[in-house]
Automatic annotation (TrEMBL):
This is ATP-binding cassette domain-containing protein. It holds the Pfam family ABC_tran. Keywords: ATP-binding, Nucleotide-binding, Transport. The keyword Transport applies. Transmembrane segments: none annotated. It comes from the Bacteria. GO terms for molecular function: ATP binding; ATP hydrolysis activity. InterPro entries: AAA+_ATPase (IPR003593), ABC_AA/LPS_Transport (IPR051120), ABC_transporter-like_ATP-bd (IPR003439), ABC_transporter-like_CS (IPR017871), BCA_ABC_TP_C (IPR032823), P-loop_NTPase (IPR027417). GO terms for cellular component: plasma membrane. The lineage of its organism: Bacteria, Pseudomonadati, Pseudomonadota, Alphaproteobacteria, Rhodobacterales. SUPFAM superfamilies: P-loop containing nucleoside triphosphate hydrolases (SSF52540). PANTHER family: CONSERVED COMPONENT OF ABC TRANSPORTER FOR NATURAL AMINO ACIDS (PTHR45772:SF9), CONSERVED COMPONENT OF ABC TRANSPORTER FOR NATURAL AMINO ACIDS-RELATED (PTHR45772). Residues 2-250 form the ABC transporter domain.
């Protein structure tokens, strides 16, 4: 579904992404792991159009999407979330979801004058869809809460809900578990798996919680120093000598081997 070929992103002499190549298969939940500074989030930012690549190519469904801006990728069904949730704090949770679909009738001044009935009908449909999303994510009870007042884990669920408002094809999740308690993390994991199974969503997930990755992801891709180090099933990846060394360092690797 999505292919990255020899992708580079340099910041001066620093090569944050250094010739990375990988494939995210349609219908998969692909994990992306690696030590801090491996280039994972930079890779996401390049794929999702927030940063231009220095060189390399990204294709989706056989079409070249290299360097397309986020709004163009949004219309193609490619979305991403962030380590820190980007909610509109003064709006309710439901309103945060309702504002996601583009080209709403109420955005046109002409419509506000002459097509108020159309605007009301569209808002009613958006509200109904938002409530369906909130029920799916088991957070209907916070629909009318200001988004600024909900917990970090609930904000991550709202970000996931935003992708459901536009029926995304592929979603890049950047550390959904950061700052989230175990109960809510399990809820997020359940929602991701249901979206994958029931609605055909494809996911690529950056996460440091290996239990979470092992539960959700197959395959798992490992990055280190801006390059793809390994790819495979979670159990095989965690036995890979190069992966252990990238995470622990040679000294600790040897220490673990002799325990």
């Amino acid at each position: 579904m999505l292919t990255v070929e020899n992708l580079h992103r340099h910041f001066g002499a620093f090569r944050a992404v250094n010739g990375a190549s990988l494939t995210v298969e349609r219908g998969s939940i692909t994990g992306l792991i690696g030590p801090n500074g491996a280039g994972k989030s930079t890779l996401f930012n390049v794929i999702a159009g927030r940063l231009p690549p220095t060189s390399g190519r990204v294709t989706m469904d056989g079409q070249d999407i290299t360097g397309l801006p986020p709004h163009a990728l949004f219309h193609r069904g490619l979305l991403r979330t962030f380590q820190i949730a980007h909610e509109f704090g003064s709006m309710t949770v439901r309103e945060n979801l309702m504002m996601v679909p583009a080209q709403q009738a109420g955005e046109s001044l002409l419509n506000t004058w002459f097509r108020r009935g159309r605007i009301r009908a569209e808002e009613k449909a958006l509200r109904r869809k938002a409530d369906e999303v909130l029920e799916f994510l088991t957070i209907s009870h916070i629909a009318d809460e200001k988004a600024a007042n909900i917990s970090g884990g609930q904000k991550k669920l709202v970000e996931l809900g935003r992708t459901m408002m536009v029926d995304a094809k592929i979603v890049f999740l950047d550390e959904v578990g950061a700052g989230v308690n175990r109960t809510l993390l399990n809820t997020i994991g359940d929602a991701i798996m249901r979206l994958n199974r029931e609605r055909g969503y494809t996911f690529c997930v950056i996460e440091h919680d290996m239990d979470f990755i092992g539960r959700l992801c197959d395959p798992v891709i490992v990055m280190a120093q801006g390059e793809v180090l390994a790819q495979g099933r979670p159990d095989a990846i965690m036995q890979d000598e190069a992966v252990i060394e990238a995470y622990l360092g040679t000294g600790l690797k040897n220490k673990v081997a002799h325990v």
